[in-house]
Amino acid sequence: MNGRRLLRRVLIVAVMVVVLGGAWWAIGRVIGEPTAVPGGSVTVVIPAGSSATQIGGLLQSAGVVPDAGAFVSKVVADGLGAKFKPGTYTFRTAEVYRTIVEQLNAGPATAEAGRVVIPEGFAIWDIEDAVAQVKVTKEQYQSALTSQSPPAGFLESGEQAASLEGFLFPATYDVGVPADASTLVQDQLAAFSANVASVDFGYAKSRRLTKYDVLKIASLIEREARAPVDRSKVSAVIYNRLKAGMTTGMESGIQYANGSWDQLSASDLEIDSPYNLWTQTGLPPTPICNPGLASITAAAHPAKVDYLYMYAIKDDPQGRHYFTNSYDDFLRYQQEHPYS
């Protein structure tokens, strides 16, 4: 019996050595062993409000770290992450752990400080105005757009995107002054790919919607859902109306056709345009703005509700909507809560 107990203890110790050795090997890969040689430079955009887990995912997608989970575990164990700063970074692939956290704590650095903020919901025409603050002209930005294509692998075979609308990821970009328009567009596209890599498009595929369709839905959500809590519900309204063969009825499509987010007139609702979602069934030909990750996620995962109608709640401080699946109820609510 004593011999068996001794053998059992030896086996347990051996297993623990293997398990712990594997775990420390993974951590070692993250922090960079002395023999690891960092590779080429890559640009990583960290959006404002990103958690350590989200940052780890972006670093893994860019090849900066091999294992996001191990990186986050090390960051948490070291009591770091709370002071990581958003912005545009230049890392090297297979970078050592200490260098990564030092950069994230210090914040992005540029030869000559310049920063441009691209909020969620900006259309290309909005971005053209925003980049003027870093001395990029409208013509320079447009030229940079024409030289780039949508991220590889996002569009399905036979799908085409008339422009890069929707792919220019909203974030804070640190650039030089004057900024290089081509580099900025490349950074926006890289940020889109890195962020969207975390989105599961499985449900949309089951509804015979492509990733590009989801991006169109996300752009509508970004312009229509004023309260974050409403994003998945607005998404559900769009899905349900598409399934029912109804128009989506989203006024933001008409605003996009007008080239302005100004309030619509009665005559605007009758314009002849594929973006007139009051008269045209289906989704718009392209996204109508550049949505953030929250709206893209909501577009891929609508709420499990049967809503078909929505109406902005008057004077609601959060900008919420009233939702219903009944047209009569929608009309009743509209009459009881008129805006004029």
Describe the 3D structure:
- With 340 residues, the protein is mainly alpha-helical.
- It has 3 domains: 2-106, 2-Layer Sandwich (Dna Ligase, domain 1), CATH 3.30.1490.480; 114-152 and 161-196, no CATH class; 202-336, no CATH class.
- 44% of the residues lie in helices and 8% in strands.
- The protein has 13 helices and 6 strands.
- The protein has helices spanning 2-31, 52-61, 68-77, 97-106, 124-130, 138-146, 181-196, 202-206, 211-224, 231-243, 251-258, 293-300, 327-336; strands at 41-46, 87-92, 114-117, 172-175, 309-312, 321-324.
- It has a two-stranded antiparallel sheet with strand order 1-2. A two-stranded antiparallel sheet has the order 3-4.
- A hairpin with an 8-residue loop joins strand 5 (309-312) and strand 6 (321-324).
- Helix 2 packs antiparallel against helix 3 (68-77) and helix 9 crosses helix 12.
- The termini are far apart.
Q: What percentage of residues falls in helices of 4 or more residues?
A: 40-55%
Write down how many β-strands occur, each being a DSSP E stretch of 2 or more residues.
6
The general outline is globular
Instruction: Describe the strand arrangement of the main beta sheet, using strand numbers.
Output: 1-2
Low-confidence stretches: 10-35
Summarize the entry for a quick read.
This protein has helices spanning 2-31, 52-61, 68-77, 97-106, 124-130, 138-146, 181-196, 202-206, 211-224, 231-243, 251-258, 293-300, 327-336; strands at 41-46, 87-92, 114-117, 172-175, 309-312, 321-324. By secondary structure, the chain is mainly α. A hairpin with an 8-residue loop joins strand 5 and strand 6 (321-324).
